[in-house]
Design goal:
single chain; about 200 residues; mainly alpha; Helix Hairpins; two-stranded antiparallel ribbon; 7 helices; about 5% strand; flat; disordered N terminus
């Protein structure tokens, strides 16, 4: 492997070990069908940098040295998907739903109700944070335009870096909102109906 050039000679410059770790993480996420954004978040935590900085390093310097490995990882991902498509899927019910007694069903429904309300609250908090981040990005864009033509290049570079970091965090939080998947909980709750005698019955699909 050739020696990868460095963007900077500062004390926080990327080392060969940093580049190798970044590449290993990105390639693993590709093989497992994950996204580069997830890979940059994991690498940032391991290397003590921001996800945006890891993305810049990967796309600007490291990636071109791993073209063959990237192709191989994508091929492994494709094979994994093909194998999984031939495996029959079985509906997995929460353990508490395996109890067919009325008490067990009631306990399960109450637990799902609590989980649902917790997710609603988490989703509300994420929406508020997303709005705050969008406002921050808008403000940073205004500052960047204001100083773009000035001689303060250091301030401009820092502002642009902060803006990219904010956008990356915004994308992560929006994805977290998507993963809450409130509709799935609604679907689980609707699988039970009340009979005329007051008992609860699971609705067969």
């Amino acid at each position: 492997m050739e020696t990868i050039e460095r963007w900077t000679t500062r004390s926080d410059a990327w080392t060969a070990e940093d580049d190798n770790k970044l590449a290993e993480i990105v390639l693993r996420h590709i093989r497992e069908g994950s996204t580069q954004l997830n890979a940059f978040v994991e690498a940032a935590s391991l290397l003590g940098r921001t996800p945006a900085a890891c993305g810049y390093r990967w796309n600007g310097v490291v990636r071109r040295y791993y073209e063959n490995e990237i192709k191989q990882a994508k091929q492994e991902k494709k094979q994994r998907i093909q194998m999984n498509s031939h495996v029959p899927r079985r509906r997995v019910w929460p353990q508490e739903l395996e109890d067919s007694s009325l008490d067990g069903i009631i306990r399960a429904l109450k637990q799902h109700e609590r989980t649902y309300h917790n997710l609603v609250e988490q989703n509300r908090e994420l929406e508020n944070k997303v709005q705050e981040l969008e406002q921050t990005i808008h403000h940073l864009n205004e500052q960047i335009e204001k100083y773009r033509s000035s001689s303060n290049s250091s301030f401009l570079a820092e502002a642009e870096q902060l803006n990219e970091d904010s956008k990356t965090l915004l994308a992560i939080m929006k994805r977290a909102r998507h993963l809450l998947n409130l509709e799935e909980l609604d679907d689980e709750k609707s699988r039970y109906r009340s009979e005329k005698n007051g008992n609860l019955e699971r609705v067969n699909e």
